[in-house]
Amino acid sequence: MNAVPATASVVIVGAGPAGMTAGITLADAGVDVVLLDKVAEGANTSRAVVIHARTMEVLETLGLADTIHDQGLIVPTFVLYDGDRALTHISFAGLPTKYPYTVMIGQQHTEAILLARLEKAGGKVLRPYEVSGFTQDESGVTVGYTAADGTAGSIRADYVIGADGMHSNVREATGIGFTGSTYPESFVLADIRMNWPDPRDLVSLHLSPEGATIVAPLPDEQNTRYRVVATVAEADEKPSLEDVQAILDARRPHSGAKVQEVLWSSRFRVHHRLADHYRAGRVFLAGDAAHVHSPAGGQGMNTGIQDAAFLGALLARVHAGEPDSILDTYESVRRPVAQGVVSFTDRMTRMATLSNPVAREARNLLISTITHIGAVNHKLAYELSELANR
């Protein structure tokens, strides 16, 4: 556990992808930045696994796109199924970008790549320190923290970024509201080894009366590793091999899928919430502290990384002498983006979990019809890729 310095230009609370992206952007500009994280080590599970085209463009500015590309699995196609019937293919191949695809890579690998780049830029992640509160005045912010041994301390900063997740202590301390609600279903999240019939250059989203299921390939020398995300009325805390097998058997009955091993699994509740504001004086929110939503489309980590790069660049400009007022553009630019993502993923989730047979058949007909129109298919891929957020 490294000691926390007495002062820093910017303190970032939380060392996930958003926090480290902001840290890299600031450190590259010569800003003295400190990251405080309450966990003793970084992510060791895959959690978020999709990196979209717009995020690859952002990572290119940090010199990381090639590394992500080389360590990940390139997937240019999403396929939408109802049971065993393929309704449509959504192709990213024609998008106007250097990265016309998605990259599948576990979050633990993304975080390791970001951490190495942060340290190269001169930034540090100090663990484990839990932020207990802060006070701010006209000249800065005093951040209180508690170390693992219970020792209390504080650090003085010009600005603070709260990138400390959905249950953000920073957001709660500011009193910023987190408006939204929770989906009634629970979600199963699992990384597994299995035999799966689809090529490993596509992600499949399965619609069924039982719920929605996403199956995504992950980088693996054996070509048997997959991420499964599925809505379940009430899932076990740690879904078993039998649980995952039953989900796949019910929702893609003739796939022939055979689960060989569950590498890790969990159950979680999904919220769709958006912070009422992104700024409170000298304190800002980014990533899951500012917005959470359904995993449909794999938008969450991507939006957070883009938040952080934009905010970090603004703070660097202020550090270089530009007026503090430019920081107001962070909320005016990025909050509408998150608002659109929350709305888009909510529509996708509700569409995917329809149970009424008549409504499902109408949905399937609509999807099959309109997505075979080239312009519609392209627009959907463009929105999923987040290129519209440039």
Characterization of the model:
The chain is α+β, with helices and mostly antiparallel strands. It has two domains: 7-49 and 106-177 and 276-350, FAD/NAD(P)-binding domain, CATH 3.50.50.60; 181-271, D-Amino Acid Oxidase, subunit A, domain 2 (D-Amino Acid Oxidase, Chain A, domain 2, 2-Layer Sandwich). 33% of the residues lie in helices and 32% in strands. The protein has helices at residues 17-28, 53-61, 65-71, 107-120, 169-174, 241-251, 300-319, 328-352, 357-370, 374-384; strands spanning 7-13, 33-36, 50-51, 73-75, 77-82, 85-91, 102-104, 124-126, 129-136, 141-147, 152-162, 178-195, 202-207, 213-217, 225-232, 258-275, 279-280, 283-285, 291-292. The strands form three sheets. Strands 1, 2, 8, 9, 10, 11, 17 and 18 form an eight-stranded mixed β-sheet that branches. The protein has an eight-stranded mixed β-sheet with strand order 6-5-13-14-15-12-16-19. Helix 1 (17-28) packs parallel to helix 4 and helix 7 runs antiparallel to helix 8. The chain is globular and about 65 Å long. It starts with 6 loop residues before the first strand and ends in a 6-residue tail after the last helix. The model has no long low-confidence stretch (mean pLDDT 93).
